[in-house]
Amino acid sequence: MADYDFDVLVIGAGPGGYVAAIRAAQLGLKTACAESRETLGGTCLNVGCIPSKAMLHASEFYDHAANGAMAKMGVKIDKMSLDLDTMHGQRKDAVKQLTGGIEFLFKKNKIEWLKGHAAFTGTDTVQVGDRNVRAKNIVIATGSSVTALPGVKIDEKTVVSSTGALELPRVPGHMVVIGGGVIGLELGSVWRRLGAKVTVVEFLDQILPGFDGEVRKEANKILKKQGLEFKLSTKVTGVTVKGKAATLTVEPAKGGDAETIDADVVLVSIGRKPNTDGLALDKAGLATNQRGQIEVDHDFRTSVAGIWAIGDVIPGPMLAHKAEDEGIAVAENIAGQHGIVNHDVIPSVVYTWPEIAGVGLTEEAAKERGDVKVGKFPMLANSRAKTNHEPDGFVKVIADAKTDRVLGVWCIASVAGTMIAQAAQAMEFGATSEDIAYTCHAHPTHSEAIKEAAMAVTSKPIHI
After folding, report:
1. Cβ–Cβ < 8 Å for 184, 192
2. Catalytic choice (338, 443, 446, 463)
3. Would you place residue 1 in the very low, low, confident or very high pLDDT band (cuts 50, 70, 90)?
4. Distance (Å, whole) CA 26 – CA 229
5. pLDDT at residue 151, as a whole number
6. Which of 360, 371, 412, 450 is least enclosed by beta carbons within 10 angstroms?
7. Which positions ≥6 away from 217 have C-beta within 8 Å?
8. How far is CA 336 from CA 24, 265, 301, 339, in A?
9. Distance CA 191, CA 356 (A)
């Protein structure tokens, strides 16, 4: 062991990397983590999941006050205004506290933070800054970055990525969002609530690719009612910037006459790509697949002994919680334990208002595998949603027609992201819809809608 500087070297300190490092250290392994960013936490904590939720939450308060929702409940505000600097300030404070918390955990667990960019120099050696280190096990957890739109230059001022969209110094008059996926809808929602006109341009015929079809249609309807404009089945062929404004050229996805759209800000959110450039993978004997991902086996081993990979750089959904679970699993596998991740039960959440969440198969995918039974329950009939004036959305439970085993659950509700945890846990234990239906749920709660949707699979819900 003396030949190695570390038992485990993790490259990247995002949700997958820092969790892998902490778990490895907890298991008694001498651990280091290489990270070039000035703070720990990766994209998620610094410029992704966390700061976007801070802006979403704050903008919801503003919207509820500005659109009269609070007045309808007897909370009247005679005079209100937007202090965008303060809103940005509370976002930055949340990031500072959480990234600082990870640094504390590194010190607590005696994890050495190697500050700098890491690149392989061999199968078990890595150059970090001016230091060359050797590790018995190396975990690649470098995450992902924004996918660029060919011919469109992101300047983070007029044409922005998700990072720039969090830092806008003023509310744009018109924001055009290229891409109707999770990130585009969330950040588009923030600026729409704060007063911007928002147009979402999506190449496909519906928003939220990969989500249940019925959920996608309902989400479109709800967000349209909130003021977002959608141009579906439309592709962007060019973006030109003049001064502080941009002009987009768009045309039907199937071809047709082009038109232009003027915007103050253009948000490019067409997806993310694995961060593998600059790692010198070839020096370790590794290569990527056609999607730029590193292939791994069930235990997260790459094709080179002693090198492992997790998170956004390997196949699967690019989600922070998936990376976290893989971080724990890979550390346990390195330590000789049996770390596993059930990739069939990875929840997805869109933090719009209301939230949109799902786990397991969509109804379309489930039907391709065999006969199914589906139960639905509207939030309009849920007592807690009623008292909170949150009528939009529904819960949908998809079960196997023969075994009644739950194959997928989809929710649109104000707290759908929290509700979906129950469904994921039930599916992890192989629950049937009857299991959920006969589980007592506290009243009045939003989660009762999951119980009622489960009841609707085999019998009938009570409250509709």
Report:
1. no
2. 443
3. very low
4. 49
5. 86
6. 371
7. 206
8. 11, 51, 13, 9
9. 19
Token output for 439: 């589980």
Residue 424 is classified by DSSP as: H
What gap in Å lies between CA 434 and CA 419, rounded to an integer? 18
Residue 392: both structure tokens together: 């939009």
The two tokens of residue 379 are 């939030």
Q: Is the pLDDT of residue 174 over 50?
A: yes
Q: Which helix (H) or strand (E) holds 142?
A: none
Question: Catalytic: 441?
Answer: no
**Mean pLDDT, residues 162-170 taken together:** 97
pLDDT tens digits, one per residue of 96-151: 999 999 999 999 999 999 999 999 999 999 999 999 999 999 999 999 999 999 98
pLDDT at 370 over 60: yes
Burial 158-172 (b: 16+ CB within 10 A, else e): bbbbbbbbbebeebb
Phi, psi of 376, deg, nearest 5: -130, 150
Looking at the chain, the whole-number percentage of residues with pLDDT higher than 90 is 98
118 three-class SS: strand
Residues facing residue 348 across a β-bridge: 358
Please state, in angstroms and as integers, the Cα–Cα distance from residue 71 to each residue in 38, 67, 83, 189, 190, following that order: 44, 9, 20, 21, 21
Q: Which residues contact 181 (CB under 8 A, 6 or more apart)?
A: 207, 208, 209, 269, 270, 271
Distances from the Cα of 33 to the Cα of 11, 105, 115, 238, 277, angstroms: 6, 12, 8, 41, 18
In angstroms, the CA 239 to CA 464 distance is: 49
